[in-house]
Amino acid sequence: MSILVINGVSEESLHQLEDENILLLIALVVVCTGMLVLLWLYAKNRKAHRLLVLKTEQIERHHRENDEIMQILQHKKEEIEQQTIALNETTVELNWQTENALRLYDEVEQQRRDITDSIVYAKRIQTALLPDIAAVNEILNDYFVLYKPRDIVSGDFYWVAAKQNKTIVAVADCTGHGVPGAFMSLLGSCFLGEIVKNNDLPMNGILGMLRNHIIKSLQQNTIVRDGMDMALCAIDWENERIEYAGANISLYLLREPKNNSDELLEIAADRMPIGQYENNNQPFTCHTIPLMQGDALYMFSDGYCDQFGGPDLKKFKKKNLKKLLLDIYQKNMSTQKKILDTTIEKWKGDLPQVDDILMLGIRI
Quick one: 104 and 190 in the same domain? Predict the structure, then answer.
């Protein structure tokens, strides 16, 4: 067998060299591939390491946040425990205050009942001192009395008596209402009865003497508001006339129409009360008015006219009362009373009554 020699190198050596180059190339490829794999693995591990570091940092941050949350929760828990303790203490205090308030309420309610019972009993006394209806019916024929205390007892009172063929009638409005007014009304009623019984005086003289009694009994040395307003008139049936004197309460007289015109006369009262006043030495005025058959007389305290109500929540006022009296005065007195009562109740509506109401009407 012959061996080909090229440039001094045998063919076998060339084949051997080529095989070695191929092996070297394969080794190089293997090494490069391994290096690439190692680089890929290194990059992957590095990325995984970064992710692990991030996760670790997140976990640590979450742990810190959880620790902070736990601290906040622990603080809130302590606050809630303190608030619960304070709330329990407050509850105990409120329970004690509630029990004490209920006890005080029971005491006040009992006192209120006692006071109310006393005032109700006082009303019985005050009512007993008012004119007896049976006796008044013997003196007057056609009349009415509209008597509406604001409270249980009243500072308004009326008084009727017969003396020497005359009927003496009074309507009075004392200072205040309720218990103080009731005391003053009892005082005025008793003094008036005593004066009329023991003296033969004109109406203005009776008012003057009553004023002296009030000032003396109340020991009034200075100008004060304690006292009363009063309309006092004597109906002289025999001479067909009335004698009237008034302290801040006027007398209204309504007559049958003449020439188709109703007639309302207001006999004005003196503008001074029965009590301490700057003109105590000034006598009251006495008015004498002739009467006609069918005349209607009206005397009233200011409670009716001063009552608030109506669509505008205003006082009823005298002009409305005058108009009402002109509309109804020809009716019988019992019907007039119902109309007057219904009118003021409708006017008042749900509003409270502001003062005692008293009105007396007499048909001649």
Answer: no
